[in-house]
Design a protein that fits this description.
Order of helices and strands: HHHHHHHEHEHHHHHEEHEEEHHEHHHEHH
Strand content: 5-15%
Shape: globular
Largest sheet: 7 strands, mixed
Radius of gyration: 25 Å
Number of domains: 3
Mean pLDDT: 88
CATH topology of the largest domain: Cytosolic phospholipase A2 catalytic domain
Keywords: Hydrolase, Lipid degradation, Lipid metabolism, Membrane, Transmembrane, Transmembrane helix
Number of strands: 9
Active site: 181, 325
Helix content: 55-70%
Motif (GXSXG): 179-183
CATH architecture of the largest domain: 3-Layer(aba) Sandwich
Protein name: DUF3336 domain-containing protein
InterPro entries: Acyl_Trfase/lysoPLipase, NTE, PNPLA_dom, Triacylglycerol_lipase_N
Low-confidence stretches: none
Amino acid sequence: MNTKAKVRRQLKRQLVEAQSFEQWRETAEKLDELDGVLDWRQEGETEMLHESLIREHIQLMRKYRQQGQTAALTRVLQESLYRHLGELSNPDLYAVARTGTKLVVSEFLAEVRLGMNYICDQKQPRVSAEEKLQMFRQAEKVFGHPALMLSGGAAFGIYHLGVTRALWRQDLLPDVIAGSSMGAIIAASVCSRNDTELEEFFENPDQVHRDALRWLSLGEIRRKGYAMDQTQLHEHIRTNVGTRSFREAFEHSGRTLNISVSPTRTRQKPRLLNELASPNVTIDSAVLASCAVPGIFPSVSLQARDHSGDGKGETPYMPTERWIDGSVQGDLPHMRMARLHNVNKTIVSQANPHVLPFISHHFERGYRASLRQAASSIVHAHVATMLELTRNTWSSSVVRPLIEQAHAMATQSYLGDINIQFPFKPTLYRKVLANPTDADLDMYIRIGEQATWPMMAMVEDQTLISRTFKECIERLKERAGRERYQAEKAAS
């Protein structure tokens, strides 16, 4: 083995053993340099980008910003974002180097950020802070927001804790988070805490309640028709999440929680529960429903905050309906998230055991990876077709609901714009329906962090404009408040 190969092998081992994103990135830069891809990052030429036009827009934005031409800068910003956002979102731009994409992309985004901040902070004659605030809010509404979507996954879903912690530590955790099944537990744990509580939660994960699963005896299973104790699961959820309603959690944390639940009746539609659509529904009942895997746990009747008396009681919500695992029909509710929250970028953390074998090669390159992708796609298509034919054949059978659920699971999309996935490790499947030990908890969190670090550059780049909108709007809200106070003081 030559010297370069030895160094590369050593660096790859260091990459796997990294204890923080900073260590990982330092090692990744050395590997990129060794592999020669840092030169690729510096070279602007590529068929994936209109480099000359991007550089022209960078120069124009810089010129108008330095000359104080706010109107012209605004116009170029609008035009350049409209022209380039599609190509800048191409995931292939991030498939070459571990540390990021073309430097011209970073330069363009940095100049956009400078331009937005200049327009925000530069005082303009006859334009109040309130007027500018409304302008930025309207522009943000048109542009959209990123959202993090956490899949189901049983015990594998604990790795979402590592994903969210890695994003939080780099200040990249979106304010809009959705979860199904185990992903609902993690999403609710995050969105029910304010920043101080969330810091404590991430720094001391060993303090979380972990005993969610308790198998029933064979006699109880035969009598009840399901395999695990739902009371134990509910205790686990309440201990980690609390008993707030969606509205109460939003007011406490400032984050928008979304939980997917699936119907037990074929004529009912899956629901996305959140502060907008179901503000009074209690989060613990929603999470319990989203975790109700058919055959493992019974279906759930949702509960809502009862505002009579002391306002802390509960009352049935849609009492004639019962709900099950959100992953069955809405593991990743893309369309409903887009409609309700104006989501323009989805970051998906995928850990579903039945999905991982079909997507484990999705982001690899080369002819072998392509063959594996083709093979898994063919198998997936055959399964979906078989279930479709079976569904039509057994239209009046008592097994129709089960076939409908299997068909929904086989045909829905399990990927987003940016994908972070649990690695396919067959030896871990024996743990999928077991409470984690201390060592397991550390392992799952570490897997989540290590799966997130390679995607960090893509997340940072593709959410930068949305994050800049948020920062500008916060500053303008403070400035508008000061202006109102001064105006009221002068009037009195």
